[in-house]
Give the backbone structure.
Amino acid sequence: MEAMAKGSAKGKDEASVMLGLRLDPDEAARLDAIAERMLVGSRHALARACLLLGLDAVEHDPSLLLGVKGRKSRRERT
């Protein structure tokens, strides 16, 4: 979260790298439900905040990723 503070020293967002994500309907619904309860701005701002929190957690304890269910790669599907 320190990176956010450094980047917004003048009150402007320094984020410039685009990352496109595809969510399944359940993931999108979870994101929307949190966005409705929290006044954090846009859905994208919420997703970015969640990403930063998750990155901090994984940096602290990479074993957290061992229990994450992800989609199968193209190789695994065929």
Summary: Residues 43-60 form the longest helix (18 residues). Residues 1-9 have pLDDT under 50 and may be disordered. Helices lie at 2-7, 25-37, 43-60, 74-77. The CA atoms of residues 55 and 62 lie 9 Å apart.
